[in-house]
Amino acid sequence: MMLTNPDTKYRPFSLGVNMSDRTWPDKVTTKAPRWLSTDLRDGNQALADPMDVDKKLMFFKLLLSVGLKEIEVGFPSASQTEFDFVRKLIEENLIPDDVTIQVLTQSREDLIKRSFEALRGAKKAIVHLYNATSPLFRRVVFNMDKPDVLALARKGMGLLVAEAAAQPETEWGFEYSPETFTATEPEFALEVCNAVIEVVQPTPLKPLILNLPATVEVAGPHTYADQIEWFCRHISKRDSVVISLHPHNDRGTGTAAAELALLAGADRIEGCLFGNGERTGNVDLVTLALNLYTQGVSPELDFSHMREVVKTVEHCNNIPVHPRHPYAGELVFTAFSGSHQDAIKKGFAAHEKRNDGYWEMPYLPIDPADLGESYEAVIRVNSQSGKGGIAWILEQNHGLKLPRPFQVDFSKKIQDITDASAKEVSGTDLWDAFQAAYHLTGPQAYELIEYDHKGPVRSGATRTFVGRIIKDGIETSVIGHGNGLISSAVRGLNSHYDLGLEVVDYAEHALNVGSESQAVAYVECRAGDRTVFGVGIDHDVATASIKAVLSAANALKV
Ligand SMILES: CC(=O)SCCNC(=O)CCNC(=O)[C@H](O)C(C)(C)COP(=O)(O)OP(=O)(O)OC[C@H]1O[C@@H](n2cnc3c(N)ncnc32)[C@H](O)[C@@H]1OP(=O)(O)O
Ligand SMILES: CC(C)C(=O)C(=O)O
Ligand SMILES: [Mg+2]
């Protein structure tokens, strides 16, 4: 049972810095940060079955296709697989010149040496060393005082510098993480990082990466932003350090934390695609990048092949991407509900009319096409749907532009189907239902064989419709007079079959689907107190209109 009194079990976060003069809330992000993917390290270490070399390579290639330039490829001292993967990348020359690989190590001499062994012969590499700095870890995990922790960081970074000097053929970069940064006293985190700066002696041309992780997310995103702004203000040699973020998502605010901390002065973000990673995951690079994109800022990452990205990541991680995952889930561009569909349909029409390129679409913050998605999934129909969505699908798939009263009529018929089935109706089902509802397929009481239309083509002149119609299996000749094709046909049908049909509205348009050019005609008819609708499709627009009248006549039989 849930405790009613968490205050006897949990303490509120209290290591915040005093930042009443914070400046980040007024800032705007105008350029992409440096990105590092840690899918192959932090993501991988969180999998029940870590990736083998083949999967790591597949993921690595995917990251290259997305445009990642810094990739943490593993923890080579952890296992043979991790070591072998780094060797493979180097020995088989699989790392493009503009890409830098990074590896992680603890501050332990044997592990550091093994990491450098793994990296031998690399053109460029970043060695990333971490040790936890927070009071809890000092007390419980390391049994160390602050000076011991400082010494551990200094010693490890000193070893990195020495090992790098012994392998001068590689262009080295160094990264230091005070693990559990957000839960560390800010002054102590600063002291450790300044000590590391003393050891590494970075310069603006050879900067040190200081990665400030929310190893476990323990406070709100605004607190992380304050911590980062405070750190940026106080760190020595700010021009010689790259401030990197590494948010995890324990409170579900990893993305917010990264975005606010970026405003607070950070230069670089480490995370994983779709937020894989320890526990609730690392911050999601896809969401961060596309959040920038939809603000008109190029993230310098390419997700125009999103389905392929999702498929590969799902395969390598053996974890599905949630159907509602921002930008990537299979349902995120889909509206089932009527008012959303109506707004989207109107949005697309307005977009086409405006033709200024700007994306202003109700309910769709990004153009699915930018992610390589079609518009097919944008509207799907179930019992929550309305006429607009149904009309959209018929227009997208079959080119039909149903007049509004026709939309209302067909939507009622679909509602009956979805209410009865409690299921989604596919585009194919919708088309089948349309053809059946308006007698384009299936048994028909009235069927046109051929017709002729005679008489002077002049305004007000009487013309004659002569048609051969099959009615309930019996062929009949139908003759009617009127001042137009439709009126003469309707009169003919009324006098032969006593239908009492009256056309109250008519519409037609060309139908270009595939290579075929056809015409479609719609009629709305009254017969006594009944209103029926008819549709006809033919290569010839006049024939389409006769078929539409017969379709309405068929509706009277139902
Ligand atoms: C927040 C993060 O993601 S940190 C990265 C975590 N990733 C991983 O751990 C994945 C790879 N790790 C591994 O495969 C293993 O932990 C190894 C190979 C690195 C080390 O394995 P082992 O030598 O068996 O050590 P094990 O992990 O059990 O214990 C950790 C020891 O290292 C110490 N340690 C932990 N972190 C660090 C560090 N950053 N620097 C120095 N020592 C550390 C611990 O205090 C403990 O010391 P103790 O044995 O004196 O108590
Ligand atoms: C190793 C460090 C950067 C880490 O993964 C974390 O603190 O979450
Ligand atoms: Mg991490």
- Category by helix and strand content: alpha/beta
Number of helical regions: 17
Low-confidence stretches are: none
Shape: elongated
From the N-terminal CA to the C-terminal CA, the straight-line distance is: 60 Å
**CATH topology grouping of the largest domain:** TIM Barrel
**Integer count of domains:** 3
Assembly form of the protein: single chain
| CATH class designation of the largest domain | Alpha Beta
CATH architecture descriptor name of the largest domain:
Alpha-Beta Barrel
Bound molecules: acetyl coenzyme *A, 3-methyl-2-oxobutanoic acid, magnesium ion
The radius of gyration over CA amounts to 34 Å
* CATH superfamily membership of the largest domain: Aldolase class I
Beta-strand content:
15-25%
Main beta-sheet annotation: 8 strands, parallel
Query: What percent of residues adopt helix (DSSP H or I)?
Result: 25-40%
Domain Pyruvate carboxyltransferase: 33-307
Subcellular location: Cytoplasm
Keywords: Amino-acid biosynthesis, Branched-chain amino acid biosynthesis, Cytoplasm, Leucine biosynthesis, Magnesium, Metal-binding, Transferase
InterPro entries: 2-isopropylmalate_synth_dimer, AIPM/Hcit_synth_CS, Aldolase_TIM, IPM_Synthase, LeuA-like_post-cat, LeuA_allosteric_dom_sf, LeuA_N_DRE-TIM, PYR_CT
Offer a concise description of the structure.
With 558 residues, this protein is α/β, with parallel strands linked by helices.
What can you see in these coordinates?
It catalyses: 3-methyl-2-oxobutanoate + acetyl-CoA + H2O = (2S)-2-isopropylmalate + CoA + H(+). This is 2-isopropylmalate synthase. Residues 441-558 are annotated as: Regulatory domain. With 558 residues, this protein is of the alpha/beta class. The protein folds into 3 domains: 32-317, Aldolase class I (TIM Barrel, Alpha-Beta Barrel); 338-437, no CATH class; 456-556, Alpha-isopropylmalate synthase LeuA, regulatory domain (Double Stranded RNA Binding Domain, 2-Layer Sandwich), CATH 3.30.160. Helices cover 39% and strands 20% of the residues. It has helices at 39-43, 53-66, 80-91, 109-119, 135-142, 146-165, 186-200, 221-234, 254-263, 285-293, 306-317, 338-354, 387-398, 404-421, 427-437, 485-497, 541-556; strands spanning 34-37, 70-74, 100-106, 124-132, 171-179, 208-214, 241-247, 268-271, 446-454, 463-471, 474-482, 501-513, 516-527, 530-538. The protein has an 8-stranded parallel beta sheet. The radius of gyration is 34 Å and the shape is elongated. The model has no long low-confidence stretch (mean pLDDT 96). The protein binds acetyl coenzyme *A (ACO), 3-methyl-2-oxobutanoic acid and magnesium ion. Residues 42, 104, 130, 177, 179, 211, 213, 215, 246, 248 line the site of 3-methyl-2-oxobutanoic acid.
